[in-house]
Amino acid sequence: MSDLISIELNGVTYRVEASHTMASFLEHHGINTQGGAIAISNQIIPRSEWQKRGLSQGESISLFQAIAGG
Predict the structure, then answer these.
(1) If we measure between CA atoms, which residue out of 64, 65, 56, 51 comes closest to residue 22?
(2) Taking all residues of the chain, what is their mean pLDDT, rounded to a whole number?
(3) Domain total of the chain
């Protein structure tokens, strides 16, 4: 049996396998990230790191969509 952890994405709690990376979690849940940015603890995580960035118990993740403007 896999170990499950709880994480929060934009205020919604998810129970996920501890082995998920950021990218596999987002894909598994069908979360659209086109034009988006991810922040964990107010730190932007570059898209190039999503494939290797693991998830930790209790993390609060924010997904922001880019908005054009000035």
Answers:
(1) 51
(2) 92
(3) 1
CA-CA distances (angstroms) from residue 58 to 9, 14, 67? 10, 10, 28
- Domain-located, residue 24: yes
Q: Is-above-0.70 flag for pTM?
A: yes
Ramachandran quadrant class, 11 (left: phi over 0; alpha: psi -120 to 50; beta: rest): left
What are the pLDDT digits (tens) for 23-52?
999 999 999 999 899 999 889 999 999 999
Q: For residue 21, with 0-12 CB atoms within 10 Å meaning exposed, 13-18 middle and 19 or more buried, which class applies?
A: middle
